[in-house]
Amino acid sequence: MSASTDLPSADMYALLQLIGDAADDDPGPALPWALLDGLRALIPCAEIGFNECNLAGRRYVQIQSVNPDDSHVVVPDSVPTNSMWFTEFPRLHRRHFSDRPVHAWSERMSPEDLRRERLYEPFWLGTSDTLSVDFPSRPGGYRKLCLWRTDGERFGERDLALMRLIRPHLYELDRLARRRRTGVPQLTPREWQVVELAAEGLGNQQIARTLVTSLSTVRKHLEHIYSKTGARSRGAAVAMMMPVHEQW
């Protein structure tokens, strides 16, 4: 049985509404604020945040969060005073959650296990559970959406099912937000597929086979892409349209 069949219709409606609101919202510093606010209402938590970290460079690239007092906070490019995070957190993740892009601490750690972690007192004191989604990231770093609960509260199966169901949409909202921040031209969903496959190195014939369409249709999509972007080649269109992470 899929996760969606276990969720009540009210949750499914709220999820669809949330995705639509986030897609229409300003892209925000990392993710649309409507997404963070909406998820915090749908899955009650003390705090929600999107964190991008450069483990190799031992610094946080960006933190965007909605705090317990409902304030919106952005912390750009910072270096924590306690560098233990950069060695201990990857170890914890590999030990417990490397096989789960969506996970809660409570799935594999008891409250006692959590309190024994070296990171607990300096970073997580008072936190009783975290629900996280791993986002695609560059080697040597991570990008995560995290929800925190306190006062002994833990995340349940409904919370995990909602997050697993929305995960593909989170990735698409992330990509959309980055595209909008860079001011790239708007393409149709099919034109984006063509650009993404071209970025993977596929030729026109391979793109046609992958999309189950004709070679002439792929060429027509490329013509539209060139017209919208002003690019004169596949490589130029890919360079212009594909999201680019900040350089470390």
What does this molecule look like?
By secondary structure, the chain is α+β, with helices and mostly antiparallel strands. The protein folds into two domains: 3-182, GAF domain (Beta-Lactamase, 2-Layer Sandwich); 189-241, Winged helix-like DNA-binding domain superfamily/Winged helix DNA-binding domain (Arc Repressor Mutant, subunit A). 49% of the residues lie in helices and 18% in strands. It contains eleven helices and six strands. A six-stranded antiparallel sheet has the order 3-2-1-6-5-4. The chain is globular and about 60 Å long. The chain starts with 8 loop residues before the first helix and ends in a 7-residue tail after the last helix. Mean pLDDT is 89; it is low at 244-248.
